[in-house]
Amino acid sequence: MNNRAQKGFTLIELMIVVAIIGILAAVALPAYNNYTVRAKLSEGISQAQGYNTAVAEYYNINPDLPGTSAAVNLTDYANADSAVSSVKAIAVGANGVISIDYLGVNGLTANDTITLTPAAAATGITWACASTEIADELLPPDCSGT
Predict the structure, then answer these.
(1) From CA 85, how far away is CA 71, in angstroms rounded?
(2) pLDDT tens, 71-98?
(3) What is the band of 13 on the pLDDT scale with cuts at 50, 70, 90?
């Protein structure tokens, strides 16, 4: 008799591999979605850095915080095209508070806003970053939901 060794995988082995791939995909997809949302939120905070600098300079010159973007010689940022950015608007409001509004794309809703609130300190301006609409686990590390 001619005994040949079988070559290939059994059905059980293939089903185990498919199950492992399914479990990995179930864990990886939500983590990737959270990562992309955090990246979009960080994009807005990066775009607002010029506003932070302008408010801090205003405070150094005047012992007060500005009430509008015009007071710090900036215009409000406005965008309606999600291909350009996920940030809809950036503006300086009362007491130098910078609000960053997001477009409803990639896990964000049109009502999502992050606020950067300045506080006068002996060494200059310190910033508090917060949001009431965005879940804490999606906010950048230096922000907290309030």
Answers:
(1) 25
(2) 988 888 988 887 778 899 999 999 999 9
(3) very high
Q: Does position 65 have pLDDT exceeding 80, yes or no?
A: yes
**For residues 87-114, average pLDDT:** 88
Buried b (16+ CB within 10 A) or exposed e, 2-33: eeeeeeeeeeeeeeeeeeeeeeeeeeeeeeee
Please state, in angstroms and as integers, the Cα–Cα distance from residue 37 to each residue in 10, 112, 123, following that order.
41, 11, 33
Rounded CA gap, 108 and 64, in Å? 34
127 close to 114: Cβ distance less than 8 angstroms? no
* Continuous segment of H or E residues that includes residue 128: strand 124-131
CA angle (101 as vertex; 80, 28 as ends), nearest 5: 95
